[in-house]
Specification:
By secondary structure, the protein is α/β, with parallel strands linked by helices. The protein has 10 helices and 10 strands.
């Protein structure tokens, strides 16, 4: 479904733009239909940069960098119709659920705006919103008329997941989606992601610094370090037989219950 090839992003700093930071260095990977792939690494490892390039928020630095979705180069010149198609099928959930809302509007507006991604849409829009909210455990009557600051972080993040359910994207990019919610809400949100995969064959790129969460939710794990993917494999393979010293250090930070396979 998704293929990332030789993705490179360099940031320039300083007055003469001579100092460089290589955020992504020839990153390549694939994501299949209905697959959850975790991109794991510390802050500054390049995870979010890769996500933003896939989402067309940031352009790659190198002309050889390619992102293909269903065989189409997503960075080739696009018409508005083609862009809407892409953003309907490749959708994002970001770390800070509050930043995903315009604080001066009620919650219902954020959900209604999702319909702008359709050229033609048949069906009752209010019903679609209500059903999606119920799927994530929220009452439409309790949240739609409220402003974002009147809701908890967990509620705001669930609303963003409900928006995904309305759009039914083929690929969701979730960038640290549970880092700002409590432990019980975190487990519920992870369960929702897995239900999307199981029910709708939705693929997911799950971006996190927490290898324990990646182990729980993933079909495959990619470990990033200084802009490069240094380790790849199934959760069991990465946890039981890590090859890189950085991965071994990540495993040490995972609670003992999840480290029972290894002597590291």
């Amino acid at each position: 479904m998704l293929e990332v090839k030789d993705l490179t992003k360099v940031y320039y700093s300083g007055f003469f733009k001579r100092t460089t930071i290589v955020a992504a260095d020839n990153v390549s990977f694939k994501v299949g239909e209905g697959e959850i792939v975790s991109l794991v690494g510390e802050s500054g490892s390049g995870k979010t940069t890769v996500a933003k390039i896939i989402l067309r928020i940031l352009p790659p630095t190198s002309e050889s960098s390619k992102v293909f979705f269903e065989g189409k180069d997503v960075w080739m010149p696009k018409t508005l119709k083609e862009l809407k198609w892409y953003w309907r099928n490749v959708h994002a959930i970001f770390q800070d659920p509050f930043a995903s809302f315009n604080s001066i509007y009620r919650v219902v507006r954020a959900l209604q705006q999702a319909f702008n991604l359709w050229e033609d849409l048949d069906g009752d829009r209010d019903r679609m919103i209500a059903e999606a909210l119920k799927q994530v455990g929220l009452s439409p009557a309790e949240v739609l008329g409220k402003y974002p600051h009147e809701l908890s972080g967990g509620q705001r993040q669930r609303i963003m997941i409900a928006r995904c359910l309305m759009i039914r994207p083929k690929l969701v990019i979730a960038d640290e989606p549970v880092s700002m919610v409590d432990a019980s809400t975190r487990a519920e949100i992870l369960k929702l992601f897995m239900e999307m995969r199981d029910q709708y064959r939705t693929s997911l790129i799950f971006i996190t610094h927490d290898l324990g969460l990646a182990y729980y939710v993933s079909d495959r794990i990619l470990v990033m370090y200084k802009g490069t993917i240094i380790e790849e494999g199934s959760p069991g393979e990465v946890m039981e037989s890590p090859k890189h010293s950085y991965t071994k250090n990540l495993i040490k930070s995972v609670p003992l219950l999840l480290r029972k396979w290894t002597d590291i």
